[in-house]
Write a structure and sequence with these properties.
With about 375 residues, this protein is mostly beta strands. It has two helices and 19 strands. The strands form five sheets. Strands 5-4-19-7-9-15 form a six-stranded antiparallel beta sheet, with no helix packed on it. About 40% of the residues are buried.
Amino acid sequence: MQASNAPSKSSIPFAESGTKNVIPEASQISLKPGAASFIDGFPPLTMTPLAAGGVPPTGADFNGILNFLSSAIRWGQAGGGYKYDAVFAAAIGGYPKGAILMRSDFTGHWLNTVESNRSDPDTGGAGWKNGMAGVLLRTSVYRIISGLQQVSVDGGAFTSLGGTTFSTVAQTTRTDVEIISGGGGGGGTEANGAGARSTGAGGGAGGYGRSIFSGSLSSIPITVGAGGVGGLATGAGSGGMGGSTSFGTLLIAAGASGGAKGLTSTGFPLMIFGGTGGFSTLANVVSARGGNGDYGLALSAVHGVGGSGGASILGAGGGRTAITAGDDALTPGGGGGGAAAAPSTGGFSGGAGAPGLIVVREYA
């Protein structure tokens, strides 16, 4: 059988507006000659020849039973299910193993794991389990794009709408949150005279934290840490600090510090130390400090490089440079690379640190 073999559907049950009887479960033989019931169907009298005193079945009975059956079929065609029914459960001797019932709040389903089960799953009855347990319901990714904090839901386009708060959907029982703070900017360099060199250090990477929360969450403020700005060439500024990333007050990661500025020097070897990686607090699963920025190094007036940015848990920061501005970090939370200037060149700006990231996964 193939999907194309699906039968046609009807939006109304048989005899919706026609004359019909409500078919009772109990026998009507002694109450109403010829009347149908669920226990007897059409009784023997309707199968007895008229000449022998038989009674023909009525059209209203036919309409009634076909209406009952087609109503159930329509409900199933619409994807409808049934909640726990104590009277029905008792009448059938309990629900069979493998039966699936709707939760009473219509937010999921119960799966029966035992035979002849009469217990109520909505009140903690034995033998039932959440039929959607462990199912991934939704994934929300929060980032800073073009200076704006935005969110993407289940791989959709990033949008500013809803990008600053988070609430779980109704079926969520467990929420898995991962955060990365902003990476620090790389250090800039001064302009050099003849025989002088200057190298900026790389910025540190953002810290990582992961926590799992039970139950529902409502209106949690979301803040994605911005990347630190690269140190300016003017005055050989140090790289800016990365911003903190926070999931309300439940999970926070401090931003990384920027790389030190590169001052012009004729004394070698010259080493400028990088920024310190950020760190997450309050995580109940795991915390990891971001990588420190690499040092700016000059061995002589003609041999020197800016420090590479620290690596976040997702990958490398900005790379090393020889005679140019620092390399911007592209990986979330990565540190910006330090600039490097050669003898008799102007100063250069450090690379920018990358903004952080928040990923939220909801499970039933």
